Amino acid sequence: MNGEERRSSIIKRLQQSQIPISANRLAEEFSVTRQIIVADIALLRASGHPIYAGYKGYTLEASNDGLVKRIVVKHGKNEVADEFYAIVDNGGKVLDVIVEHSVYGNILVELNISSRYDADIFVSKINETGANPLSLLTEGLHIHTISVKDEESFLRIAEKLSDLGILIEVA
């Protein structure tokens, strides 16, 4: 199988999957190295395929029948779970996190957190590794892109984040 055939097969595989697929898993399935899969994904993205890379693996972007909005929040490491719960419990999905770094500019990392389970896994990884959330580079100030089915869901999320004292702005 050549590279073009493999990339076509990767897209088909992602279309068929309801869950993220890791680069290691794809490498095993296609009998190539993880680095080749990472390069394939980069080429597929460059050619316009909406592939998300999350902490659990790769997925194709679902068609968005709702709204995509941005929120600006500020909080410490101990409020990460509360922030995610406020979003997912009120019908939202956290697509990414963005920090505006003074040297590097905008740093965006895809998250794709759509449930308390996803949030708990994310927080567990932070705690297990001793890593800090990206937002601590900017003293807790960060932006999330979130998807919601309707304006009502978004307003509930904004209200809950405001109640928690972490909502700075709706962008």
Structural features, described:
This protein is α+β, with helices and mostly antiparallel strands and 171 residues long. It has two domains: 3-60, Orthogonal Bundle (Arc Repressor Mutant, subunit A), CATH 1.10.10.10; 67-170, 3H domain (Histidine-containing Protein, Chain: A, 2-Layer Sandwich), CATH 3.30.1340.20. Helices cover 42% and strands 27% of the residues. It has helices spanning 3-16, 23-30, 34-46, 80-88, 116-129, 151-163, and strands at residues 51-54, 57-60, 67-74, 92-101, 105-113, 141-148, 167-170. Strands 5-4-6-3-7 form a five-stranded antiparallel beta sheet. Strands 1-2 form a two-stranded antiparallel ribbon. Strand 4 (92-101) and strand 5 (105-113) form a beta hairpin. The longest helix is centred in the first third of the chain and has 14 residues, at 3-16. The protein is globular and about 55 Å long. The chain starts with a helix and ends with a strand. The mean pLDDT is 91.
State the helix count.
6
Computed structural class: alpha+beta
Q: If you compute it from the alpha carbons, what radius of gyration comes out, rounded to the nearest whole angstrom?
A: 17 Å
Main beta sheet: strand number and arrangement?
A: 5 strands, antiparallel
What is this entry, summarized?
With 171 residues, this protein is an alpha+beta fold. The protein has helices at residues 3-16, 23-30, 34-46, 80-88, 116-129, 151-163; strands spanning 51-54, 57-60, 67-74, 92-101, 105-113, 141-148, 167-170.
